[in-house]
Protein 1
Amino acid sequence: MKYTEARQQLIRTWGQLSTHWGISRTMGQIHALLMVSPDPMTSDQIIEELKISRGNVSMSLRSLVEWGIVHKTFIPGERKEYFASEKDVWKMALQIARERKRRELDPVIQSMQHLQAINPDSASAREVDELNKMTTQILDVAMQVDKMLDIGIRSGGQTFVRKLISVLR
Amino acid sequence: MKYTEARQQLIRTWGQLSTHWGISRTMGQIHALLMVSPDPMTSDQIIEELKISRGNVSMSLRSLVEWGIVHKTFIPGERKEYFASEKDVWKMALQIARERKRRELDPVIQSMQHLQAINPDSASAREVDELNKMTTQILDVAMQVDKMLDIGIRSGGQTFVRKLISVLR
DNA sequence: CAATGATTTCAACAAAGATTGAAACAAAAG
DNA sequence: CTTTTGTTTCAATCTTTGTTGAAATCATTG
């Protein structure tokens, strides 16, 4: 397989994949492009390469920076801003896990905590009971997963998963 | 907090959440409704409760069944189909993990395997090198996560996470 | 501080995704 | 076989999300 093909396919695949994760296709493509680029890139280079609008590039880059997986870098004597992706895929995965935990898991925990202690108005005991069982279970699962992610994040991805696999096989 | 409120909030929250996960809001709501319902429900009851169209309910239920977290059940002497959710949240989480692995992780592994062994056409050594480093890393991470999920799935969620937390703290 | 170059914002537009509802289909009952 | 009841399909429509491009903002330079 030729370099240019392979590179394009990676960008396409990553863009495709990203849509399954609440991230726009363009963001995914930009991220892939930065991952495989040996040097930081300017927005103009990205526009050129992916044929997308300046506005879109600007917004996507900002969002990638907010996710913490792309960094602005300044090159001495250069006026333009340069962007580079995190190159360590484990670090990247952890950073994504950390953000998703914050954006998705933490709110669930909050929400389920509010739903504890129900006052059975017109409902039957069975109904109240079932609802309680569910919220309690969901809270339990969410809190344990949360704890697990904390540990994983603290100990660094590779170490964590390696240990884990060796311990639990 | 009153029962009816709490129930509605759970349904709203779950529907909201589901959109972050490539699942439509309606599907999430139906799932929440089935989770807290002590008895299996017919599509008519779901339509009534959530005020959504028959077609939507039919398609969403099918999809939930494909995900393996909702089951059709037949009640003797009844002509209608009844649907019930998996009630064990750990089982549910595992089933979702299993499906997501199949739908999202496995394709990445496949794709990265295709991208190994690049023929440097017009590209510089640095560029080829960077691309190779990336695809190799991604493949590595994906395969380890895959292995981890396999172990987790085999040993059952609760056991898995409990062990893991206790071992790695 | 005016001019130039770079970046961001945002209203208008486009694309993708979700939902509806009515027609087609399937299964059981009379 | 016909009717009744229940389920699925799918084109049309609505909703949500993503994208563009030009104007506004910001920053640097002479």
Protein 2
Amino acid sequence: MPRPRAFDEESVLDNAMNIFWSKGFEATSIQDLVDETGLNRASMYASFGDKKALFLRVLDHYSQKISAQRFADLRNIEDGRAAIEKTFRDTAKTGCAEGRHKGCLMVNSGMELAPHDPETAAIAHQAFRRAEDTFAAALKRAIDQGTISKTKNVRALARFLTGSFQGVQLMSRRGADQETLQDYTDTILAALD
Amino acid sequence: MPRPRAFDEESVLDNAMNIFWSKGFEATSIQDLVDETGLNRASMYASFGDKKALFLRVLDHYSQKISAQRFADLRNIEDGRAAIEKTFRDTAKTGCAEGRHKGCLMVNSGMELAPHDPETAAIAHQAFRRAEDTFAAALKRAIDQGTISKTKNVRALARFLTGSFQGVQLMSRRGADQETLQDYTDTILAALD
DNA sequence: CAAACTTTGGAACGAGTGTTCTATAATTCA
DNA sequence: TGAATTATAGAACACTCGTTCCAAAGTTTG
């Protein structure tokens, strides 16, 4: 019965995500979103609610589409140590390859909003809690496989890797050069020995 | 001849710094600054120029007053390894002690503005380049003193420590609990072995 | 075809933004 | 004391912000 939508929700979220990712929440205006998504203001408010609600949708979209991909290898590669190494190497490579240095939306948003916005804080907290668990699982595999010493504290190491992952994303957003990022990740991975 | 200023420039910068530190550049309004510094709008513009100029002054102020203090031990403690350890332990302790989790203004600002503001990007870049050199100097001392293996790559390790330092600041701004921060820093320091 | 219903385009809103202006107050030097 | 000079207070500015409203357009079902 109703008039059908003229836009694809997924691609609108993609576009909105890229703006928030690049500029951050506060610096992104509704006008920016209208311009970049091609979507009309009224349609935006009708479909997604206000700016904050759209942002939370985008955060979820990012989590499912980008983060999931970033951690796919970490989950799927059977060799635990190789999984961790590939995750960091790929992250570092991507980080200094992209022309616009954007880092990771989840890290960026946590930094920008967490201290004053409990909702975003909770989402970011949960996301990295999950990352920590994923690292822990890979570490356990590696220990079972004998590529990491069983004397290591898995939880502490997982926290270290999670923090370091965010550190790499941070450095790449700040525009770190390839050499620095390489040294950084090499030393992170050497900490597994 | 002129009417003397009714405010102390240093304490105005202190107050302005705390707002920017807590809320970030974009989310801080001129009204916030006026309210918190007690300084009149006109006086603010006359003395510091526009918002961006004030922010750059604040960044410099932070660098001299806060950063310098944070890295004082790293420079001054003769025992290189102890200097590094104390720097990280103190940073982690401060990071989860403060009621309001603010992190490090230089890290925050680099994250928020670097991709779109060359000025801030350059200031942050220089600041952490200096930090890297300070870590490198401490590492060299430690190697000379025999507390760190001379087979280590000093530059790579310095870059790792600089990235990790920012990672700790990031985590503490995101509200990481003490246990996580502790595990994180312990593992960072263990990488020196 | 016509009724029902939703999206669309674009104007409009009030509030808040960063910034500037003007008049007044305060101090010092002649 | 009076002229010169600067800071202060607060109104005012133009603009952008996020948000809402309304009429017109479009599609589907009866």
Protein 3
Amino acid sequence: MLDMRYLRKNSEEAKQRLRDRGVEAETLDQLLTLDQARRDTIQRVENLKAQRNEVSDKIAYAKRQKEDASDAIAQMQQVGSDIKALDAKQAELDEQVNEIAAHLPNLAASEVPVGPDESANVEQRKWAPAHYDNRPEALVKTDWVKAHYDIGEALGILDFERGAKVSGARFLYYVGDGARLERAVYNFMLDEHRKEGYTEMITPIVVNDSAMFGTGQYPKFQDDAYRVAGLDQTYIPTAEVPLTNYYSGETLPAEDLPIKFTALSPSFRKEAGSAGKDTRGLIRLHQFNKVEMVKFTKPEQSYDELEAMTANAENILQKLALPYHVILLSTGDMGFSAAKTYDVEVWMPQQNVYREISSVSNTEDFQARRMHITYRDENNKLQLVHTLNGSGLAVGRTVAAILENYQNQDGSVTIPDVLRPYMGGQEKLEAKSHY
RNA sequence: GGAGCUAUGGCACAAUCUGGUACUGCAACGGACUCGAAAUCCGUCGAGCCGCUUUUGGCGGUGUGCGGGUUCAAAUCCCGCUAGCUCCUCCA
């Protein structure tokens, strides 16, 4: 949610910044007109209420003195019905204002490149382990490189067919060493984040509507959510929702900030509108595992913490020796709640592209305002915290990247060094006759 | 799933039957006493939200779990809901 006072006072600037986020200027004009009408109504109804309070006190006093108050009561009957009518009008205006305000995306930070879509994103840095000679393209020059889903199926560790049979398209079973590898990957990630000072959590994976509103998924993006039939609850699209809403409605002790959480959770997405895209493999599923990071910070420290969180995501890829680059998203490519977002993209040699494996965002006070998370500053005044979230990392996509980058010509896959302790010292994935 | 009870400031509670300025204590804050502290005494104390404003502040509105209703007036009466507790039932 944006700060209404800012929008009123700086409407021209706000209009431009909203236009950068794809919102038409008329939308803000409409909002401000309704806001003005709302405030006019409030003033009228509050005057009447002040009058009612005053006269009611007099009536109470008169009754205590056993005096007659029927004149005053008759007079207040009219005021009472006027108040009722104006209250109703205000409630209607409140709803109209909220309807627009709740759909406005966050404003981008000043250093975010302005552009309509991903074409305006800006690469920040590139990394690859030494044996790639800083040229991840090197691997693709061999003609035997296979896609991760072909590798996984050949090894018998990814079963998409039975996933589709039992659940539908975009679901799968991990089998045997595949399941073990997935578990090794997320245990490794959680251990790393724990070392970095994140508190490990296991969260509910079903949340109520106010939680989905708090982080910004609702009301605008309900189509992509798995709602529990008949209940006002939703299967989470990311652990960001339960982690960030953990403190909703609370005032945090300033000395505890920044607070850092991490959690593994399944994530559920309908992927509405992406029919036909990435139909094979681990890239775009209705259910996938993700290790998430969330931070609550003071405003002045949130951008340093954004850099730190991005480094936490990169650290995982560096320890896994997977090539990646980091891009700064443009105003047109950022998510609804974000003020600034870095995407980390891992090298996928078979497709010859970088694929998103993490997205790290500072939402500033956008989510905190929606869910009322505050702290007391040096002057003992309540301030909204800043919230950040980032994947650290998408587990399934990490497994896909490992399969492709660590594949050998004989069809086996070498297990990255750092994962071997998590797999009982196993060094390779090889085809087995059966599991 | 069934039955009963409960929900009031940061905490503990009163007022609910019988509608009329939400009691008191603790904590907190300011002050007195003291070399300093404790104790004691005096004073302040409804968080948050909304609106207006001449903005270190002032005024008004709202605010007794949430949402409605009745009434000149609701903590109090009525309806719906949520959460917690106890018992029954079920369950990994």
Protein 4
Amino acid sequence: MGSSTENFIQILKNAGVKPSIQRIKIYDFLWNNRTHPTIDSIFQVLVNEIPTLSKTTVYNTMKLFMEHQLVRMVTIDESEVRFDVVTQFHGHFKCEVCGKLMDVEIENPVLVNQAKLDFEVSEAHYYLKGICNECNNN
Amino acid sequence: MGSSTENFIQILKNAGVKPSIQRIKIYDFLWNNRTHPTIDSIFQVLVNEIPTLSKTTVYNTMKLFMEHQLVRMVTIDESEVRFDVVTQFHGHFKCEVCGKLMDVEIENPVLVNQAKLDFEVSEAHYYLKGICNECNNN
DNA sequence: TTACATATTTGTAATTATTATAAATTTGCA
DNA sequence: TGCAAATTTATAATAATTACAAATATGTAA
């Protein structure tokens, strides 16, 4: 554990984020649980490790992480903001039956002709909705 | 106006939605204002035409329209659910400075290898964030 | 046309996520 | 050790959405 904690501290520092205990634990959790968690699920798990943890801190930390490109916000359904520690471009699939959200490997879509010139792009997001195989087979 | 109202009634009927006055006016508004409006902006405009209009009706109607594939929900930023009357696949660009949301023509992205087999897709969404030319040039 | 059952709309209250705020705590440094 | 700045925390305020039940409108059978 010691060594990976060191790694997380370094990642935060490299991104320009001061590594407090809360921030390290939150980043650790995101790194090791690739479930695209919500604010609430992050809080529910970590309040066990840090009993004084406040949900406001989770909100503040995720906002800070986003500003420093450490995470990306995933908004597929209203009322369900999730976070992804993988910041490289990739797609998501959300099963409308079981609600699971999974990563999807896709080719980076190509803008058609003049559209490229009309703005400067900083982020691209792609997601699908449907029914996963597990839910289809029962 | 009479003739386009007839068209809207027909579109709703074809989709299996009973055409009440509220539903027709809301669909009319969406069709003629391609600004990806929010619930609130739809309500603010239409309450002038239908003084008794309730925001609950707008919520109910948009939910019904979604269930009947008449509109698509566009969720880019948390706390800002928008709606799009164009249901064919296309992308969106959101300017992070002025907040404008515009359509983007893109090639439909391709799933890579095995991903296709893992689920049944019903909807695909693609969006970009960045800065539009107008905001860049001032 | 009238009466009635059903669907739709409406207004209000309840719920929930998020943000604002200020006090308390922690941290790093002189 | 003492102090200033940053961070965390708890509480209150805000705002979007949903639940719910009453009121209204609609369509149909007699």
